[in-house]
Amino acid sequence: MTRRVLPYRSPSEDVVTVEAWLLETEDGEIAMPEALPDWDYQMDVRLSRVVRVDLDRARSQSGLPADAALTLAAVWTATGSSLSGPAQHVRLDGRDTSTVKLEIQLRGADLGGVLLLDTALVLAERRADARPSSPRRAGSILWSDRESLRLQGDAPQFPMAVIDFARTSFPERAAWHLQISGGLESATMGSLLLLVNERNTVTATAFENAGRPRPVDRIVLSAVYADAARIMVEHALGHDDFDEDADFPDGSLGATLLSLCEQLFPGQPITDIRLRQRQSPALFASDLQSAVKMFEVS
């Protein structure tokens, strides 16, 4: 186990007491689970937690004066979108113990993969009069912790929009269309877009109910995800420079497609997968159905 060593004094872990993150659902608040398998990009995430900070001990153990201003900050990072940002920060100027309720709301369109939630107690302002062993820079971390929430399971997920296909060049009676643009080096979030035809009420309703899907919704979502996986894999195999040794940037379309192929066809070289897809596309389509566990109930 490794321990981060700071170049200045920091307080003991028990100067901050945190309660578990709570997830807001239609049925009320629940303890944040490890994963939300039915999450999709239309589903915003609302979270809260209570944090108590012993300000006097935090300052004294850090070698800070009694009037040093501190800040409690929450920051989020989504591995699927490679986006991050400040969720909330609260300035703490008082004495004794301060109780803060952090409340954050994140847009589903900004998320994906694993949601990392970092909570930190930091120095609010630069201290020119700080001792040599004490924190002096604004933002110096005195205490921190990290929790995570997995927002997607094995199914490929991506930004989506519900539109009227009759106003587009897509077939008016098609249920959905996965749009892939850009090269393999492009960012995944800007390269993939799932379009759902609002006139196909069965499919549109399934995505509206993705948080609490009915049996019929699960069937529709399974079919969409299976078809999306097929399109993505076939798109990847169509690039001759796509192979397991390629060094695609993190968060890029190539890295996402490579991860998907490794997930669906573990241990199989890309050259073998490409050869099977080209020699027997019908059998390969059945292989993909099996790999994505189409219509199976998790």
Report on the architecture of this protein.
There is one protein chain. With 298 residues, the chain is an alpha+beta fold. It has 2 domains: 13-150, Immunoglobulin-like (Sandwich); 160-291, no CATH class. It has 7 helices and 12 strands. The protein has helices at 55-62, 188-191, 201-208, 215-237, 253-264, 270-279, 281-291, and strands at 16-18, 22-25, 28-31, 45-54, 70-78, 83-92, 97-106, 114-123, 141-150, 160-163, 176-180, 192-197. Strands 1, 2, 3, 4 and 7 form a 5-stranded antiparallel β-sheet that branches. Strands 6-5-8-9 form a 4-stranded antiparallel β-sheet, covered by helices on one side. Strands 10-12-11 form a 3-stranded mixed β-sheet. Strand 5 and strand 6 form a beta hairpin. Helix 3 (201-208) packs across helix 4, helix 4 packs across helix 5 (253-264) and helix 6 packs across helix 7 (281-291). It is elongated, with a radius of gyration of 24 Å. The two termini are 34 Å apart. 28% of the residues are buried. The mean pLDDT is 86.
> Which stretches of 5+ consecutive residues score pLDDT under 50?
none
CATH class of the largest domain: Mainly Beta
Global geometry: elongated
Mean pLDDT: 86
Strand content: 25-35%
Span from first to last CA?
A: 34 Å
